[in-house]
Inverse folding.
């Protein structure tokens, strides 16, 4: 009886190391406006220190990365996001 | 017609009435300049991410308005700057998507369905609580 792929037991998860293609969520889901008052949403684009994440990590297109950046900056002025932080997540 | 949005944070030390009147004065100011008010959104008392003027919380307001000529905006912002009851303000020009987004938000189309339902349930619970507390006040008066 030939062993099918389902029978094979892997020692580690074979999906580890497979990279999923990144995409721009604004283009994919048709989000046209980024609300600078929605701090919970903007939290996805900043790191623990409250810095903006680069495009190579978020996968945003240039157009929307710029808009995310302005939205985060506006939220900072309004005191919804910190300018500097430690372990905010 | 151009649409703008002015956000401001009112000092939380003021009493509820004073906070309301501050927002009302600003709204009337805008009308005085000839702007048409689209919506006044009171976001309520929120925690600030960092201290502003030694306050760690503030009452957020957002007024959306439209106007044909906005050459008075500088004057208006100066009056906000001189207003000692405000911690901070921000005026933003809305593009067509922003106008649509705000419209949808007011009609409850923005956000996941679950989150909207949770918020609606919370609001209903708050109202129910108010109903419970109302008769108590009457008893005290009697």
């Amino acid at each position: 009886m030939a062993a099918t792929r389902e029978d094979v037991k892997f020692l580690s998860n074979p999906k580890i190391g497979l990279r999923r293609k990144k995409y721009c969520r604004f283009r994919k889901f048709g989000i046209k406006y980024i609300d600078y008052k929605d701090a919970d949403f903007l939290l996805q684009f900043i790191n623990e220190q409250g810095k903006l994440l680069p495009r190579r990590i978020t996968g945003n297109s240039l157009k929307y990365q710029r808009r995310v950046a302005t939205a985060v900056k506006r939220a900072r002025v309004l005191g919804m996001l910190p300018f500097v932080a430690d372990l905010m997540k | 017609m151009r649409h703008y949005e002015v956000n401001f944070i009112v000092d939380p030390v003021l009493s509820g009435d004073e906070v309301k009147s501050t927002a009302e004065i600003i709204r009337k100011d805008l009308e005085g300049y000839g702007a048409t008010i689209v919506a006044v959104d009171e976001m309520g008392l929120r925690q600030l991410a960092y201290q502003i003027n030694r306050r760690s919380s503030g009452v957020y307001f957002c007024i959306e308005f439209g106007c044909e000529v906005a050459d008075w905006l500088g004057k208006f912002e100066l009056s906000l700057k001189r207003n000692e009851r405000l911690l901070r303000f921000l005026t933003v020009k809305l593009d067509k998507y922003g106008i649509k987004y705000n419209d949808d938000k007011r009609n409850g189309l923005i956000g996941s369905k679950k989150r909207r339902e949770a918020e609606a349930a919370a609001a209903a619970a708050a109202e129910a609580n108010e109903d419970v507390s109302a008769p108590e006040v009457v008893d005290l008066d009697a």
Observations:
- Chain B has a mean pLDDT of 86.
- The two ends of chain B are 54 Å apart (CA to CA).
- The interface with chain A takes residues 7, 9, 43, 46, 48-50, 52, 58, 60, 62, 87-88, 90, 92, 95, 97-98, 100-101, 105, 110 of chain B (CB under 8 Å).
- The helical segments of chain B are 16-32, 73-82, 96-106, 113-141.
